[in-house]
Amino acid sequence: MHRRRLLQQLASGAAAGLLGSIGTFAAHAQTAFPGRAVRVIVPFPPGGSSDVIARLVCERLAKAWGQPVIVDNRPGATGMIGASTVAKAAPDGLTLLMTVSALVQAPSLYAKASYDPIRDFAPISELASAHVVLVAGPELPVRQVKDLPAHVAKLGHPLTYGTYGQGSSAHLQMEIFARVAKLPLVHVPYKGENPLINELLGGQVALGTISAAAAAQHARTGRIRPLAVMGSTRSPLLTDMPTFGEAGFAGLERDGWFGLFAPAGTPAAIVEQISRDANGIVADPALRRRMAEIGIVFKGTSPAAFAELLKVDQAYWAQAIRDANVKLD
């Protein structure tokens, strides 16, 4: 798979030759920080999108700061293990967190959350976003998402749909879609995207939520048909494919994000410097083009803007989780 190969290539360090020089974006960085090695905790296994983004950014931060910036993978409990480690770290900017929307979801999914996503972290930057796409397998004779309700009513029984995990953003948004569309759907969680795609192709599951890059790749073969895009905008990889909102189904407008955090109480000057330097990296046009090929849209926001996004997201996902009655413990 093209996306998987490129992720592995970037994660292995070969991206340096592909992406070229970033330039002198951090020429004005404060020499007092960091002064020694910085650790960036990724609360997921190596090789995934969050890990790749972290390694790309960390490699360039290390060059800018003249200090090692080390990626430390701490997977488990929907990202809570790694996030809790950062929440308890010294607020000096030397221990950071690179994570995804699960940061604000996990406390509602687990009865005993080990952190508060608003109180325990200092947001640095929303570095990137990515689209998730609802697709139909080859056995499902539906071309547009608006045709699903009539098709399921004609069948007289629920349709199965797969996601990359119980309690994931895709799972929660599909539960919203099922309520809005009054669709009887049965969730089948998979351990990752590849097993889900294999079962979609084999007809074992009728619908699935996969990355825009995977959806675009398989759409070219005609074996998997994209139906609608989750989030507020269309995917640049599937410009002809409407969002759920455009197709008439409201409530699925939240975008999945990749963000950088420090522990709460980290001095504002350090947070602002890290944000400025990281945003300079993701603003590089060559890097943006390369990552867009695998469906990752680099952004870069201020700490204040990211903090506002977190408040909105926390309320949205908490409501979605209550409505879906999803618990992971």
From TrEMBL:
Sorted UniProt keywords: Signal
SUPFAM superfamilies: Periplasmic binding protein-like II
Leader sequence residues: 1-29
Stored Pfam families: TctC
Keyword Glycosyltransferase on entry: no
InterPro entries linked to this entry: BUG, Bug_dom1, TAT_signal
Family indicated by similarity: Belongs to the UPF0065 (bug) family.
Name this polypeptide is given: Tripartite tricarboxylate transporter substrate binding protein
Species assigned in the record: Variovorax robiniae
